[in-house]
Amino acid sequence: MQKLPTGSRDWKKECDIRRALNESLDRRALYWKQRAKISWLNEGDKYSKFFFLLATIRGRRNAIGSILNREDTWITRQDLIGKEYTDFLTGIFSGNDAGRVMNCESLIHDRLSDLENEDLVRIPSFDEIRKTLFAMGSSKAPGPDGIKKGRGGFFAIKIDLVKAYDKLSWKFVNHVMSCFGALDKFCNWVSQCISTSTLNVYLNGGPVGKIVPSCGLHQGDPLSLYLFIWAVEILSRLLEDALGRGSIKGIKLNRGSGPILSHIFFTDDLILVGRATMVEAKGF
What InterPro entries does the database record attribute to this sequence (predicted)? Predict the structure, then answer.
């Protein structure tokens, strides 16, 4: 019909044909969509050719074929892309531990007791190890509660501490554990756990390099969570010390003689709260 001369085309008939064609194409697409769903339900979890085909398609879709490096140059060779990734990640997980570590002893008044130290260096039994491993699950931190608007002006600043995981000084971790009264034996155990690991860099499913970190903690490692809690405890006590000296005011939770709030920790998030003044903001 499209080849007919201008003015002699039957537009109504052409619209009817187009409508019928589109309906036919829609029915065909729906048919294959339903067939694909049936194949997925029947073959998706099987160790079959269909399973490997899906994995191959997903891998090709997620493959990295080129990147723009720090010199604004596009790189397409896989070995050069792998080297670029390895160099970048090496810079993240590298730190200088030669600097002076802040003395935290004045901030810590509740040191570990002898009984607690004995528990730390006691070799766990097989049953304890088994129960701990099987009890591990995905833990989620609750979101910050809403702060109602009051008459005065307040501010809240959310700081993501996720990068602090990567740059946390190992020397500082050992110093904090010592300040809390942990035995040297336990500190050495922890130091060996966090300083003898290596990271493998993979690109498009294949290894391209290794990284030997010199700082930071591994997210997802059960030990890292407890060490990070000890480290942020020092930050919390620094903020409490500033609150006690009057450098920051925080906010009162009620109009009476209730507690004063200056900060809240949620896993790797820190929320600072205070009065909306320049003096208060600079105090933090």
Answer: Retrotransposon-Effector_Assoc (IPR052343), RT_dom (IPR000477)
